[in-house]
From TrEMBL:
This is Aldehyde dehydrogenase family protein. InterPro entries: Ald_DH/histidinol_DH, Ald_DH_C, Ald_DH_CS_CYS, Ald_DH_CS_GLU, Ald_DH_N, Aldehyde_DH_dom. Residues 5-461 form the Aldehyde dehydrogenase domain. SUPFAM superfamilies: ALDH-like. The keyword Oxidoreductase applies. The active site is at E235. Belongs to the aldehyde dehydrogenase family.
Length: 467
């Protein structure tokens, strides 16, 4: 890329550490990338399953081989602790490996027509060049679960990563450049959403947009895509409940809440930000969880003793602190954390914040904070807890801790969420199963697993008569 401005990539664990410099692209660069993807589509759409398999397998193998190197890069630029950075790189490798297999399992149907002598062939075809807009919080896994199926099913790709994580995007693009992909099939352009992202929305050549990010931006993606009659897929966050019933195992429930709310610095769209606890266990749960929250070791991502790394940047840190002040002003009890932390390096460190004595209408219980901030809501019984869990515009993930099969079964059915966890954190899903939510969290077909083909392909019905 030759245009644009040079931007430093700064380590949120150590702001004196500039990882690299990257070039921010402009309108000419993104238009060239879209043109290249459009020109390459016809050839790639007609490529055979073996080349697609080989490309995706190559990427999977190299990511796995270089998991410590790329995982370290991920932790340096995003702030996840090192074990999480490596685990995310492995997950990306697994996703590419899964879709390498799917490339060899492309199927269709041949069925008889109701008319004599006529057969019907139903096949799937790629939708065309697609735009992929990914967030910063999973800088290699989320791009993987969008890019891998796009290529698997014969689409060409224009990829815009988040500005905060250019290193992981570049590492993935560099591997893809050596994978055997024909020129123009995969294109990376870094830059501002207002420039690069907008140009993607304006481009008639892009037949699909897969987006993960904020509600406000997702709405703009939807509006622009409807005008162009383009497929679009949106993942836009959550305000996920974890219900804890009186019969729950206390240690397991507090561990599940701690993981779901605070691991990965709470910067997960599936994080448990609302902990809904019934009367009989409420006080014991709060006391035990408070102990665990206060004991979490906050520090640099690469330090071996760190359990929670920094917030991703100054802007996100200020947002988190603002919400903590909002919670206090609304009358919630800040039971633990919520303060900037000094570490051996300068970074965006925040102690995990736990609010108790909260009410459903408080902003900290309505709005996605996207940081290490969780609140406890007291519920009278299971039915009240379920009502509180569903009392949100979001519907991505929901969880329950209980030893009751009756309540677990009912919650799986009645929770208004795309993913439901029983005695497990709301954050953390397998790479081979569908990911997505309901209500304001998601729109369009599911991501991941075999369900990804619903977005990245279109169905064609052909009729055949021997003549």
């Amino acid at each position: 890329m030759t245009g644009g401005q040079s931007v430093p990539n700064v380590n949120p664990s150590d702001t004196s550490d500039v990882i690299d410099q990257y070039r921010s692209g402009g309108r000419p660069e993104i238009e060239a990338a879209i043109e290249a993807a459009d020109a390459a589509f016809h050839h790639w759409a007609r490529s055979g399953p073996q080349i697609r398999h080989d490309v995706l397998k190559f990427v999977s193998d190299e990511l796995l081989e270089r998991r410590e190197e790329i995982g370290t890069l991920l932790s340096r630029e995003e702030g996840k602790i090192l074990s999480d950075g490596i685990a995310e790189t492995v997950r990306a490798a697994q996703i590419f490996g899964f879709f390498a297999g799917e490339a060899l399992r492309l199927t269709g149907d041949i069925i008889p027509s109701v008319r004599d002598g006529v057969s019907v062939e139903i096949t799937r075809e790629p939708i065309g060049p697609v735009g992929i807009i990914a967030p910063w919080n999973f800088p290699i896994a989320i791009p993987a679960w969008k890019i891998a199926p796009a290529l698997c099913y014969g689409n060409t790709v224009v990829f815009k990563p988040a500005e905060l994580v250019p290193g992981c995007a570049w590492a993935l693009a560099e591997i893809l450049s050596r994978s055997g992909l024909p020129k123009g099939v995969f294109n990376l352009v870094m830059g501002k959403g207002s420039v690069v992202g907008q140009a993607m929305l304006d481009a008639p050549e892009l037949k699909g947009i897969s987006f993960t990010g904020s509600q406000a931006t997702g709405q703009r993606v939807a509006e622009a895509s409807v005008r162009r009659q383009r497929k679009f897929q949106l993942e836009m966050g959550g305000k996920n409940p974890l219900v804890v019933l009186d019969d729950a195992d206390l240690e397991r429930a507090t561990d599940v809440a701690l993981d779901g709310a605070f691991y990965a610095t709470g910067q997960r769209c599936t994080a448990s930000s609302r902990l809904i606890v019934t009367e009989g266990i409420h006080n014991r749960f709060v006391e035990r969880l408070t102990e665990k929250v206060r004991s979490l070791k906050v520090g640099p991502a690469l330090a071996p003793t760190t359990q929670m790394g920094p917030v991703v940047d100054e802007t996100q840190l200020e947002t988190d602190l603002t919400y903590i002040e909002i919670g206090r002003s609304e009358g919630a009890n800040l039971r633990a954390g919520g303060e900037r932390v000094r570490a051996e390096t300068e970074g965006y460190f925040l102690s995990p914040a736990l609010f108790t004595d909260t009410e459903p209408g408080m902003r900290i219980n309505r709005e996605e904070i996207f940081g290490p901030v969780a609140s406890v809501l007291r519920a009278r019984d299971y039915d009240h807890a379920l009502d509180l869990a569903n009392d949100t515009e979001f519907g991505l993930s929901a969880g329950i801790c209980t030893s009751s099969l009756k309540h677990a079964t009912d919650f799986r059915r009645a929770a208004q969420a795309g993913m439901v966890m029983v005695n497990l954190p709301t954050a953390g899903v397998d790479y081979h199963v569908p990911f997505g939510g309901t209500k304001a969290s998601s729109y369009g077909q599911r991501e991941q697993g075999v369900y990804a083909r619903e977005f990245f392909t279109t169905v064609k019905t052909g009729y055949i008569h021997p003549g």
